[in-house]
Amino acid sequence: MKDVIVIGAGAAGMTAALYALRNGKSVLILEEETVGGQIATSPRVENFPTIKESSGQDIANGLFEQITDLGAEFELEKVLKVEKDGKVFTVTTDYGRHEAKAVIIATGVKHKHLGFAGEEELTGNGISYCAICDGAFYAGQEVALVGDGNTALQYALLLSNYCTKVYVFTLFDKFFGDASLVKALRAKENIIVKPNTMITGYLGETELEGFVYKENGEEKKHYTKALFVAIGQVPDNKRFENLADLDKDGYFASDERCLTKTEGLFVAGDCRAKKVRQLTTACCDGACAAMAASEFIDKMGQ
Ligand SMILES: Cc1cc2nc3c(=O)[nH]c(=O)nc-3n(C[C@H](O)[C@H](O)[C@H](O)COP(=O)(O)OP(=O)(O)OC[C@H]3O[C@@H](n4cnc5c(N)ncnc54)[C@H](O)[C@@H]3O)c2cc1C
Description:
By secondary structure, the protein is α/β, with parallel strands linked by helices. The protein has seven helices and 17 strands. About 25% of the residues lie in helices and about 25% in strands. The strands form four sheets. Strands 1, 2, 3, 4, 5, 6 and 17 form a seven-stranded mixed beta sheet that branches.
């Protein structure tokens, strides 16, 4: 039995592991995809204190090295459910079961999909949610992107470095991201913004051939081999609602203490209800949740 099981190896989960380990607790981290979570998909981070500029992947790698050096155990397993019987938590994954005295859920958020027919089949075959992962496949080609926030802006700038043209489709006639990113995007000649447009369906069955969109009420087609979808994120917390309350949008209802209605269960990072979802706030939650979990375990032993 571990002292603490952390679900999710993003910034929040790995920071939680760091603080729990430094409190002398044994820690197992369970991660369904890759180390780093969202930040690992960010080409450039410029707002993490003490680091002037870095790729998100480098930040994630540094944090992972820090916790594995301290003795964190890591398994690539998807958590399916968490149950509590008496004082013991059982965490069931797609590979088996693990037990712990305390659990910290740090599962972040998932990419929002446009939701049109064929999206599942076309994902990885022209539709992508991560420009840093898939952008280079389209070097020297024209690509399209849909979205109007910071992620969309960052992705468009990255793609513009090696794609001939980047068409950016936005629902309105403005962006909702940092002014510095908007300015940088406007300065790029090979980024073509298509404001007031709404994508309504995909073209292609096994490979993306393009998409249908509406502009001023008129239906049009845009032919492309790549569409990057950056329209926001949603939480995926329903599987844990037996032990932790969710708010109306599906985020864990908790506060900066990261507590849930179940003793010994804590939530951290983008998966919980809060206003600012950033690297710094995710790390802050991870620290708070781990301190609370350590205190809980210490009290158990008294
Ligand atoms: C493209 C992009 C650029 C960004 N740029 C910046 C920036 O410049 N500055 C900044 O401060 N913030 C930035 N952010 C936001 C920042 O990355 C997030 O706020 C922060 O990383 C959230 O961390 P987290 O650990 O809470 O969640 P996540 O990073 O989402 O990590 C959650 C982890 O949990 C795993 N997981 C989920 N469900 C399960 C399950 N059932 N079982 C096992 N594992 C599971 C996921 O695979 C994931 O690895 C950016 C985000 C994106 C997408």
